[in-house]
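quick one before i forget lol
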Amino acid sequence: MIKLSNVQIIRGARPLLDEANLVIHRGQRIGVIGRNGCGKSTLFQLLAGNFDVEKGDVNLPGSLRCSMMAQETPACGRTALEFVIDAHQEYRALEQKIVQTEKTGDGRKLATLHDEMDALDGYSITHRAEILLSGLGFSSEQFQHPVSSFSGGWRVRLNLAAALLCPSDLLLLDEPTNHLDLEATFWLENWLQRYQGALLLISHDRSFLDAVIDNIVHFDSLKLISYKGNYSEFERLRAQKLALQQAMYEKQQKRREQIESFVRRFRYKDSKARQAQSRLRELQRMQDIAPAHVDSPFSFRFRRADKYPSFLTRVENLSIGFASALVEGINLSLHSDTRIGLLGFNGSGKSTLLKVLAGQLAPLQGELQNSRNLKIGYYAQHQVDDLDTASSARRIIQKLDKERSEQEIRDFLGGFNFDNSRVEEPVGNFSGGEKARLALARIVWQKPNLLLLDEPTNHLDLEMAHALTVALQQYQGGMILVSHDRHLLTNTVDRFWSIHQGRFSEFRGNISDYEQWLRQSSAETRPPTDVKPDRQRANKKKMRQKAANQRRQLAPLRKQNKVLEAQLESLHQELSGIDRSLADVSLYAGEQQERLNSLLQRQAAARKDLHRKEEEWLAAQDALQLASGES
């Protein structure tokens, strides 16, 4: 058992913890959450035994084996495989002893050392290291590449593999999914579910947290508050707590209205009834937990673009790559209501496609036709590194729009939690999370009508990731999103496309379906798609006639769907009006009892009608899907 009693930690002049208490038992899986800078990483350093507290007691068992994921990876000539094995210091020390003893010819001592190596499971260490590297996305050829040849994101994966290889009773992982794709994230999730020791995990990926942890430790007012359950359960409990605070009521109601607006815009767009049901449940859950985030320091929304043309851009027979093509035959039209999640293995070409669409990389072949009113907001990890570190956040935004007043820019940056003093500091002093927020702020300020987002939640904390989800729900333009954050994908996009084995095609299903496909299929298996290759080009006329006949057959079903959608919209408006009336505190005075009862009866009846109409709509979706030949 690990125990912190009345602990105080001060960094510089800033207190991080005061009279804080925490108990960690063997086998617990704990998500450590709190705002950037609150002290999460400092807590990890404390548990790793790297410093002493100002006050209080820290009880760490003497036999405790702790493994912590390093945040920096120096360039070196060691191969990736050697680097990971080097982290197992006990193995390396024993290996060296065996080498030295073999030179002396001491057979008895050598036998003892080999027994120790067997007990350490050292003879399988290379195999275990290779499994870890493979799971995190390294090819067998990359095992022998020097560490210095890898980019920063791949070095983060090496640090993660090294931490997982070390034998441990306590495993400390700080944002392990940063720079991982979905496939590697799923693999890590499965690995951690089998881990036997105590796990402390810092992550902005709430879906990952939910799948791995069973407890929460929340940094709150210089204390460590423990909760049973995963992150979603914590949100629910915190929502209940904050909902009791009357001062938060107006912010809660505003957020509920925002979610209802998003529901009206997108809840009936899914072509499959099962996906529609999933979205209904997820959006209802988001509305229920909205109060858990009302005290967030982040409050921003994408500024309205000058124009939202129906057509944004079109690509035809596009081939992308570098020396050779990664993907060929890409055909896609993007409109102002297009919201796509892009899936695929690491290295498949997702980021390359976004670069081509953003005009930062020329295609190898094909046409790219842009609307003259197209305005792209492109976010990629390198843009964080491209920020002018000598400039301030205010000056970076000021350069984009010199006519705006300094106060307007300060107010805008305040929504990204840059206070009055922080907006004038050199960006070089910013943390990775602050730079990521500033890079996003720069995009938001420019009022794009097409967003191309490549892993936008890397380096963000949970509250900022949630704020970004909210902002993207309200965003009015087109969007393509690459992310390992399943919650972000589930709540902001309508359709999924995948890149697999050089082929770009629509993926039929949601994130759960994609995860299931990954688990059940090999890397050579083709994912389900909506795109069927046209192998009958010589008979185009016949195909057009068939399509026209199908459209005529589907017309009554489509009309029925539109009628139901209009009825559903009317019921939503009625319920919104009732909710606004019920929010009037004067309604609860004694003389208003009759009107209150009438409103409550109307609300119950409208909810019943809404449920019935939703069932009819879902059944109509099934019928339309069956008639159109979809499975």
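fyi The domain at 311-534 is CATH 3.40.50.300 (Rossmann fold).
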